[in-house]
Amino acid sequence: MAVKTLFNYDAYASAPEKKYALYMMMLGFAALALGTFFGPFQAMNYGGLDLYPLLKPVFQNYYQGLTLHGVLNAIVFTQLFAQTIMVYLPARELGLRPNMTLAWVSFWMALGGLLLAAVPLLLNEASVLYTFYAPLQAHWAFYLGAAIFVLSSYLSIYLVLDMWARWRRANPGKITPLATFMAVTFWLMWFLASLGLVVEALFLIAWSFGLVAGVDPLLMRTLFWYTGHPIVYFWLLPAYTLAYVTLPRLAGGKLVSDPLARLVFILFLLFSVPVGFHHQFADPGIAPYWKMIHTVLTMLVAVPSLITAFTIAASLEVAGRANGGKGLLGWIGALPWNNPTVLAFLLGFLAFIPGGAGGMVNASFNLNQNVHNTVWIPGHFHLQVGTLVTMAAMGTAFWLIPHLTGKPLVARGMAVASQWLWFLGMFIMTFALHWMGFLYAIPRRAHISASPIAMEAYKESAAWMALNIVAGVILFIAALLFFYVIFATALQNRREPGQVLPEVPFTEVMSKPEGSGLAQLTERVWFWFGLAVVLVVLAYGPVLFQMFTNMNPVPGQRLW
Amino acid sequence: MEHQEHVIERYERAWIFFGLAMIAVFIILVGYLMLTMGNTNPVGAGRIDATKVRTEGDFANPRVEQIGNEYVAYVQAFAFGYLPAEMRFKVGRKVTFYITSPDVQHSFHVHNTNINVQVIPGEIAKVSYTFTRPGEYPIICNEYCGIGHANMISKLIVEP
To answer: Predicted ipTM?
Structure first.
């Protein structure tokens, strides 16, 4: 009775937040497992091989599968992982318990919203893709379910702010510990960022219930991308947090600079949100100078990632040298590559470098014309969210599930293999997608393998397409290995507390926050939050005001 | 350890400076090239009632007009195709496209050019371009518009 032990209450009697974290994370990985199942089908499609007929009559078409892939992986899994990490880490670091009633309310809201949205998704009543652009109109249950799911994250915001306030009352004048500081700035950023999606959901729910006859498609797009770009930092920052506060220790070293890590999170708080027009460079209805302003702000949000690249690399070098690595590059070989968690982060960051360079292309107002909505774009974000963010989560699961349950990791060799294969598959696939988009203008999210017209138009890219098939097979194997490892670990009967990490592996730091002017400055979180609000009002206010006061509603359509 | 920390801090400052300088160069380059290299980013050219695109106004009669040495094209992107079905232009002459949609979002991506327009119902997009090489140019819809999206490919012909 493997399932029974997962529900074993005694193991969590002294630490109910562990049970909360476990349930949030495993729900996220369950969503990821279903979403990822469609991934190889998508890869095969861009290899010219249509496997979707195999899924009938359960799944009706490519676009239904793609909607599930996007929604489950990019909205559901990422948010649940954030609700796990960015609540559990501060709780452990501060030694405080989150409000458990609200923690469970947030879990049940997330689950309830997910199940409600799942009904139309599984019945092909909401095949509107991850972006659900109006006037394509989904069933109301999709919008309502998604809204309830997203609103559950507001409880996570409260949980963390509440713990932070309690800690500050007990420790007046002290500098907030690093992981908690990251969680606080992260959730404040998400609160500001999520407002666009929340307002859009109000329109879409009213529209899908028939209360209003139409919605303005440009306004809906603008609200979507208001949240739709900062949401990528919502995905990314839990991975960065883990890289800052656990990776140096797991690799055998120390974090080189605590104050700089705080600066990074303040910069993300400031610059994550007022950048959404760079997804709308090709849109009519937004003046070019507004797009240029967002170009500049988008470029600036690269700065904290550049600092992160330095700090993480320097911390890893410290670790490699502490492990006995010598010479200019000897420290790289001396890192614990056989540790599946460290391996996942190392490979993920390796993929993040070309991904970031591609991001600079997307952010450039003029260069974007050549790649907008081509398969270059999924090529780009599969390096970022599909590789670094996902691998950070997978790698962390390898120690976090044992830590939460007391059950040791099973099949460590398979865990290591899954990460190498995931990296390899993603690298091959994204390489092919970048070139197919840039050189052959192949559109993203198009069922080309079922269209003789499309296959004829794109026949020159046949060699690149073949790479997608290879990558699809590799990624399918990687996913099987990974999900076997985590579910076999979580569902086994064996509890051996001696074989798991008893505490979160928080790192030591070399350059400490005490006495640092920078750390004092970043500690004024509410000031920085206020400044972020001002920036958003300046960068979005006039455009949104004009759009709200001049709406041009269009009736809904179902064309799938 | 103290020594190592200071060495790292020196490199750290240099790296941040390098990063900021790189960003500044990118921003300046983007701005400069936008102003000097011919800007093909689409702009808005007014709004329209999407439900009347097929029955009223310029878009009810999708066409290419020659005005002096230039062309004006009124294009409908619909599920799942483009009107006019075929467009012909002479090489080296400026073409101004006006594009809108009567139903859902589409796009108007002309392969091997910098034309890549998001077509949004209710909005009229405008983009100008001068074709410098004769030949056939595929027009591709790169915004998901429904079950026939992948078939939404057309072409325009640039004559010598």
So the answer is: 0.95
